[in-house]
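Supplementary notes (optional reading)

For those who missed the lab, this is the record we used. Protein: Single-stranded DNA-binding protein. Length: 133 residues.
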Amino acid sequence: MNRVVLIGRLTKDPELKFTPGTGYAVATFAIAVDRRVPNKEGVREADFIPIVIWGKQAESTANYMSKGKLVGISGRIQTRSYDAKDGSKKYITEVVADEIQFLEWGKKNEGSNHNAEYEAAGITPVDDGDVPF
């Protein structure tokens, strides 16, 4: 079984690209996920996890999320490799998300009403009053 669920904050704005030929959307970004236990000095640390998401969810993420926003990710861990220009082999481990939840909203045009845009994108905003914790 290869399944991962993460909650964290975007470390930078998502980068949206489209595959050559098919034009399928792919967004890449990283999230900072707090570690549960502080280090020996009592300081909380975080892990920075690279995320890849495809299709309509990639477009929505790039359009509505920005650096610092809180997201929930569900997907699988993938490891791949490639040959670098210097001839060495490079390995990348990332999470390929199949589901994303926007836990904080907004990007550009902060303060404007995005509900119609969110609904058009198939996204249902969650009212913090509905969260049981």
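If you only remember one thing from this example: Helices lie at 55-64, 115-120.
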